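yo

u said u wanted the structure for the complex thing, so here. seqs first:
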Amino acid sequence: MAEVLHTRKELAAAREATAGPVGVVMTMGALHAGHEALLRAARERAGHVIVTIFVNPLQFGPNEDFDRYPRTLDSDLEICRRAGVDVVFAPSVSEMYPEGRPAVRLDPGPLGEDLEGLSRPGFFHGVLTVVMKLLQLTRPDLAFFGEKDFQQLTLVRRMVRDLDVPTEVVGVPTVREPDGLAMSSRNRYLSAEQRRAALSLSAALRAGAAAAERGEDAGTVLAAAHRAFDVPDARLDYLVLTDTELEPGPVAGPARLLIAAWVGATRLIDNTAIHLAPRP
Ligand SMILES: Nc1ncnc2c1ncn2[C@@H]1O[C@H](COP(=O)(O)OP(=O)(O)OP(=O)(O)O)[C@@H](O)[C@H]1O
Ligand SMILES: CC(C)(CO)[C@@H](O)C(=O)[O-]
Ligand code: BAL
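structre next:
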């Protein structure tokens, strides 16, 4: 049975009593099969698994969905129990930020201002600040993050490297619905019609990957992805081809194709690995 803790003091006591490799999976709750894959990966690599459930106000903009973000603690706990999680840490906002918004926040650097950071100013300052706080509180040997949020995974890896955090960051492949839609807690905002339009994100990525497999160059790969996205009910935010560190403009070799789009009032993201053929 997972132990459910709400205070930093309880967590510190539980952590003190734990030996052996500790794995942490950080979440905002509303757990789904994507999160379950992270829990399985953690269970395989770590003797002791801690899950954090915290909807972090610091990473939401003033007009974003902090208030309506789904909060489903009972079913989350059931999923954690089934997955053999040892500790669930589910603090309140005042427990995490007793003095209100922290004056000192982590600066994600230039990548934090691009892609997701362009549409969500301050987002990665909020993400990295809470991830660092949760790393300090849980002191894990391993921390598991989903590739679905590839820019987040990249920035967390960079933070851990730049700030000498003694934790290995493990990326877990994106879990999809059978029709290709990347699992996301925000999918539950979609009507049936919007869910059909949302398929255009993964369709664009598949079209890009298929063009790369045919040996097409970067420009053709991107054009194929754009053509496949062409649906009236979804509005593109960005569709970019980068290198695997999210720097712009790869011409050959391993790359990443990333997309963000609005479907109604819901903003969705997705990405895939691409391998560009060597240039002649
Ligand atoms: N489909 C997925 N496959 C793999 N990992 C995922 C998937 N969805 C979320 N994750 C990972 O789970 C962790 C917690 O994410 P979070 O709780 O924000 O869920 P989410 O579904 O991404 O929510 P949202 O839709 O609000 O962004 C992150 O590391 C995230 O990348
Ligand atoms: C990493 C995270 C838990 C920080 O709030 C959040 O950004 C998420 O769920 O991906
Ligand atoms: N899944 C990343 C957290 C967020 O979108 O707020």
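The two ends are 58 Å apart (CA to CA). Residues 26-28, 56, 59, 127, 130-131, 149, 152 surround pantoate (ligand 2) (CB under 6 Å).
cya
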